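Request:
Um, any thoughts?
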Amino acid sequence: MKPVLFRFWRRAVRVIGYSGPAAVLLVLVSIGVALWLPRVDRDLKHIQAEVSDRTSRLRARGAVSLPEPSGDERLAQYIDAFPMPAQMAADLGAIYTSAGRHKLDLLKGEYQLKTEPGSPFVTYVVTLPVHAQYGLVKAFAANVLLDLPHASLDELRLSRDTAQGEMLDAVVRFTLVYRSR
């Protein structure tokens, strides 16, 4: 099948150039989209009618729709989704547990608590030097980010002594975000 299409393509390019087959392909795609759009529109109208029907049945049963939260309420909900600073010790424990799972030794680290005036957030910056293989460092960082959704990976600096060496000297810096109130 492929040789037939390839020969057809080469013959078409010889006769009408590269832009000709491309234009034919573009026309075919646009015809396909034009034929597909009415079905999408019909499906959308069907779904809207179904949602409207379910909404009216719920209202008939006495269900009350919730009001849309204001911008300030949304902001408060967003801020409240972050943990309190009292969770810092548990989060550090989770980081060290993850390092243990990946057989990494975290011998020392730098820890810095930062607050911005007027900000509803407190950040805790954790910088950890690691000496391990790349796969273990990567798995460790990914695991911490999965375990702590309020953490971000700010820096992952890798270096090694020789090009053939498997062991890396890495610096991994996480920022943990907490609400201040």
